[in-house]
Amino acid sequence: MVNIMLVCSAGMSTSLLVSKMNKVAKEKGMNVNVFAVAEADAKNIMDKIDIVLLGPQVRYLLPKMKELMEPKGIPVDVVDTINYGTMNGEKVLEQALSMAKN
Amino acid sequence: MGRVDEVFEILLHLEKKKREGVSAKDIASMLETDRSNISRYLNILHKEGKLEKIDGRPVLYKSINNDTNRVSRGGNSIVDSNNSLDKMVGATQSLAMPIQKAKAAIMYPPKGLHTLLLGETGVGKSMFAELMYQFAIESNIVRKNAPFIRFNCADYVDNPNLLTAQIFGVKKGAYTGADRDRDGLLTKADSGFIFLDEIHRLPPQGQEMLFTYIDNGFFRPLGETEKLIHVDVRIIAATTENPNSHLLKTFTRRIPMIITLPPIRDRSLSERYFLIETFIKEESHRLGKSIYINKNSIISYLLYDCPNNIGQLKSDIQLACAKAFLRYKSENGDYLIINQGDLPNHVRKGILSINDYRNEVDELLNTTYDIFKFNQHEEPPLLLNVDDNRSEDFYTAIEEKLESLKGSGIDEKDINEIINIDIESHFEKYIGSIYRRFDRTGISNVVNDNILQVAEEILLLAQKQLGKEFDEKIYFGLSFHLERSIERIKKGEKIYNPKLNSIRINYEEEFLFAMKIAKILDNKFHIETPVDEIGYLAMFFTTDSNKKFREEKPKVGVIVVMHGRSTASSMVEVANSLIGIEHAVALDMPLSMNPKIMYELTKDKVQQIDKGKGVVMLVDMGSLTTFGDMIWEETGIEVRTLEKVSTPMVLQVLRKVVMGYGLDEIIESLNKKDLYKDELPKKKIRKNIIVTACFTGDGASKKLKSVVETSLVDENIEIMAINIIDEEKLENRICRLSKEYNIIAIIATVNMDIGYIPFIPAIEVFKGYGINKLKKIIDEENMYMKVAESLKEHLTNLDGEEITRDIKYLIYSIENELEIEIISDAKIGIVLHISFLIDNLLAGVIPRKFEDLEIYRNLYEKEMNIIKESISFMEKKYKVSLGEDELAYILKLFLLNQNTV
Prior knowledge:
The complex is a heterodimer.
Chain A lengths: L1 E7 L5 H14 L4 E7 H4 L8 E4 L7 H8 L6 E3 L2 H5 L3 H13 L1
Helix pairs in contact in A: 1-5
Chain B lengths: L1 H14 L6 E2 H8 L3 H13 L3 E4 L5 E4 L2 H10 L20 H12 L7 E4 L6 H14 L9 E5 L7 H9 E2 L11 E2 L1 H4 L4 E5 L6 H13 L1 E2 L9 E2 L3 E6 L6 H9 L2 E4 L8 H19 L3 E4 H9 L5 H22 L5 E3 L6 H4 L5 H12 L5 E5 L2 E6 L10 H14 L4 H26 L2 H7 L2 H18 L5 H20 L8 H7 L1 H18 L5 H12 L14 E7 L3 H13 L5 E5 L5 H15 L5 E5 L4 H12 L3 E4 L4 H12 L4 H12 L12 E9 L4 H12 L5 E8 L2 H14 E8 L10 E3 H6 L1 H26 L5 H19 L5 H19 L10 H7 L1 H18 L5 H13 L5
Parallel strand pairs in B: 4-11, 4-12, 5-8, 8-11, 13-14, 17-18, 17-19, 19-20, 21-22, 21-23, 23-24
Antiparallel strand pairs in B: 1-3, 2-3, 6-7, 9-10, 13-15, 15-16
Helix pairs in contact in B: 1-3, 2-3, 5-6, 11-12, 11-13, 12-15, 16-17, 17-20, 19-20, 19-22, 21-22, 21-23, 22-23, 24-27, 25-26, 27-28, 32-33, 32-34, 33-34, 33-36, 34-37, 36-37
């Protein structure tokens, strides 16, 4: 199971994207679990994560998250803006999984 | 249940003096404790059937069993009310007679009476037999380790010899296969009990042997000719047969005590409730966890048709517990909650009978409770709510409720939902309770004359302006409310209205009126009525005395059936998640599926979701379009079909459904405008333009235009050169243009920054770097466009293009005001954040709290104000109000996404 955490500011915009990503994963038979957290909660959830994606509006968290996560081997990146903006579940999932491969 | 017993004891004691009954206050003063707790215990005792409730002021309680108890105590000192039989649910109600008979059968000298238990499948005959046995032990009639042998005569129905041999024993060679002497169960049961279930399956030979024993006290094992066996066994036989049947007559003649156990439909709702409670607690014990269950599910269990009686009730409860447990495990939930979805279908239907039993159910469950928590260690069930009679005012009630829900470990999302759903019914109750508490003179004692007068004026005004009738009930309610709210506002206590947005949307007229009223109040009492309070005021005007209070009605069902492996389900998923209710259901029709099978599936689903209000069926094409009418004809369920389904269509239907529209209204409203939206001429797409402007006569704008045109190759953008006379006029002109065009940027020779559209000074363009700026703006514009396109599909209450444009303006003006520049990528994130925020607010979702808001506000007071002001045009336009938490989130997004380069 690959756990992907998506971080945004107050949980307003990511839930739809998350459900789309999970759906794509399910359709493709991938063992992936995507979930969203608000910025304030992100620091509390540090276990069982394989990949961290940040919404473009919280890209300012990138350095801090990298510092926290990368030593544990967890890749962190900002979601591609257009894919985020258009809620393209498939593309965002692709991005996440390619991060894991690198 | 120590405390409850204590209360009961005291009541019995006090009753000796107060023959008319005892009040909660009497007991509270004896125990020196809070009256409301005592009331609760008294209610429990009342529900258990131990007390009689005499309505009045105060409510008085009298014990019901007082006399009979004393008699039985006096008659036989061994029997106390704590015996197994009397602990049964319904012991003082529908089981009173059976229990009395059972006791008599056990106690009857010298050796008791053999008993025949009659009753339908699942009424609890085996359990009853076992409790009779327990009772016999408790009463020292049999010894403590006396045997209790149970045998089901149906088990050996194919082999009558073996059956008879089982009961009476067998001598070797009595029949083929009887290879040795064996004792029968009757022998094993000596000096105890044997329970023979389904006795009507006993073959004639066995019957004869049984009757011999009953009459003479001895029997001969099968095949035995000489030896008689004497035993002392009490027989409890049981059967589901009709007592009048020929077969049974032989038994009823020979067995002296006949006890009939009532079917569940003949038992009272309160008994049924206690059965439900018992079974859920058993499960709670088994799982080692508290079990939560919502009220509607309890109601379903109370009211559904349960032909197989208690046994079925139990297994239906176990099934739901198992489902809820599975979900709790798989989703790693915080608590184990049973909701409607976990109930078997036939159980769920129970809630449909609510109208026939509303009063009884209300009395039983006290309707303000939403979620019941059952725990193996706690009795009675913990009711997760506040008692509205105790809350002096509306706000406290809501706050307490919020707190109690929080304390129970339910997460915030669910809490909001619960409060949202409940607030209206709560309001109605509140008004009702005040009306009951006071009369005209009574109210003038508690409410200031001043306020009474204002309340009267307000209602007169409301009558005139809203054209509704308001009765005394509302008058009292409003007066009382005003007294509290004004006091509260003066004290500076916060008023919180979780349903503010939905009130605004659903009761626009009343809300606007409430705003006027707030002004009157402000002037009169020198206060500043907060908007949350205006929301509450509005609710007073939503009631119409001529109308009955709205009840939570069953909703029209929504089903989406489409070709393709997952088209329908994904559409439904989006719609449900956006509306925030799991109401619409989907059926996917893989292309390989036979339409006949599909039809059956669809029919089943429709039957499942129909709550008596009919079903809207949205389909794409082909044979699916005919299903609706066929189902309608076949099942009588009114089904309306909408073809060429699209996500917005599902959304629209769902929204109407949730708002409580009826089937016809929904179809009509869709037919009117939006259903055939795609066939109507599409809304004109706004052309993108860049405006170049200069003062009349100097020709700079044309020059600008050509510079821009040569350096930009984008056929989607038109450059429009305009002349300006003065700045004021320019603004108006841009405003007009923006209605027709999408203005990407303004380039002008003088500073013409109008605040919400990117402005580039002409000089920068001529020097070259202005063009780069412009390119960046166009890139951003393209991003915005893509987002707008996608938002169109994803927003429920908003037009994607419109809101994107507004937020784009907003971002630009905030950038200006704060004198910062935001990273392009972050802008898209901000668009999503704000658009979903507004969409959610419109849907009544309560946004998240901002951590350490106080501190943040102190730090960035000026910036917060800028955000508030900048966004106010959107608040007006979309009729939402953003709280400080929301503003703080937005500000944070701006401050932390600055382009520092």
